Amino acid sequence: MQCAACRRDAVVFQPYSGKYLCPVHFTKDFEAKAKRAIRKNRWLLPGDHTAVVLTGDAAEAALLVFLHKLTRDRRDVRLSAIGIDEGTAGGAGYARQAAERCGIGIFAGSFAERYGTTRERIVRDEGAVAAGRTCRVLAGDLAAEIAAANGITRIAVATTVDDPATRFFSDLLNGTVERSLFAAETVGLLKIPVIQPFMDIPKTEVYRYAELAGAGTGDAGSFATGGESDAEAVLAAYDNRHPATRFALANLAKTLAGIAGTGSPSRETCPVCGSIREGNTCLACAIRQKYTGGSGR
Q: Which of 24, 99, 101, 131 could form a disulfide with 122 if both were Cys (CB 3.0 to 4.6 A apart)?
């Protein structure tokens, strides 16, 4: 098929827009969406030191490439990388390669050093779905600790439109919608502000951008997602037939969060980390207790 904007061969089809796009026009469309998210949310301000979290995921490497292109001629902002070695095969090496390709400095940390375990062990002990939540908490805390120790003011994560859509859908089914509506826009127990330039872009397009940008291909990293739950499988099947579903869910979650933000959570929040409690338990702090012996260091 030919590109909708020129006569070149298309490499991407956007089912939600009906457009076929060549590498040039896909890249322009992709980067325009990411830049719009940054402008709208004022995510790159003079004096910022932003770091991209790298765990071995091609989407994270794509985010580093994009932000490097965007900031390389700016002297008023600084870009770095935070490499989190979760103990998976090739993850740490992939993170270093991504940073080196962009000539970006990398601050490193590891699950083995900080927590005495690895992602593979956590998956073996807890199962893929539960391990996803555990690794998000541990990676977030470790990234925030590294950021705070190195003067990093914002952490960039490769969240896509799939992530809030899937989380909101799952929370609706589980009766835990407060977790989506009152989700923190910070990372870790130290609450470092987070930016998500790819938040309005489908995951499949992020991986295509990574491939075209020479950032490689890969599976979703644990920082953004975990194992596939039943809710994710149902949503994926429905989205295949109705391609705008994830956008609709993500937009609905954002709208409801804005309305809910004018009031107060219907459930008690954790006084330590601010997360919504499940009954009398904060799941995030329970994870911290298990792997660090406390709610923090």
A: 131
Give CA separation, 144 vs 97, 154, 196, 198, 295, in Å: 22, 9, 15, 20, 14
Model pLDDT for residues 72-121, shown as the tens digit of each residue: 999 999 999 999 999 887 777 777 888 888 899 999 999 999 999 999 99
With vertex at residue 19, the alpha carbon angle to CA 18 and CA 21, rounded to the nearest 5 degrees, is 155
Q: What are phi and psi of 257, to 5 degrees?
A: -65, -40
DSSP-assigned letters across all residues of 108-123: EEEHHHHHS--HHHHH
> Measured between alpha carbons, how far is residue 90 from residues 26, 197, 210 in Å?
29, 26, 17
Alpha helices in the chain (DSSP H): 23-41, 58-71, 91-102, 111-115, 119-126, 128-149, 162-174, 178-181, 203-212, 230-241, 245-260, 283-292
Q: How far apart are CA 76 and CA 57, in angstroms?
A: 28
Distance of CA 223 to the CA centre of its chain: 6
Q: Which residue has the tokens 């979290």?
A: 53
CB distance 3 to 9 below 8 Å: yes
Give the Cα separation of 167 and 225 in Å (integer): 9
Cα–Cα distance for residue pair 234/188, rounded to 1 Å? 30
For residues 156 and 82, give the distance between their C-alpha atoms in angstroms, rounded to a whole number: 10
Cα angle 247, 226, 155 (rounded to 5 degrees) comes to 75
Q: Is the Cα torsion angle 221, 132, 117, 280 positive or negative in sign?
A: positive
| 235 in Cβ contact with 142 (< 8 Å) | no
Tens digits of per-residue pLDDT, 1-21?
999 999 899 999 999 999 999
C-alpha span between 209 and 224 (Å, rounded):
18
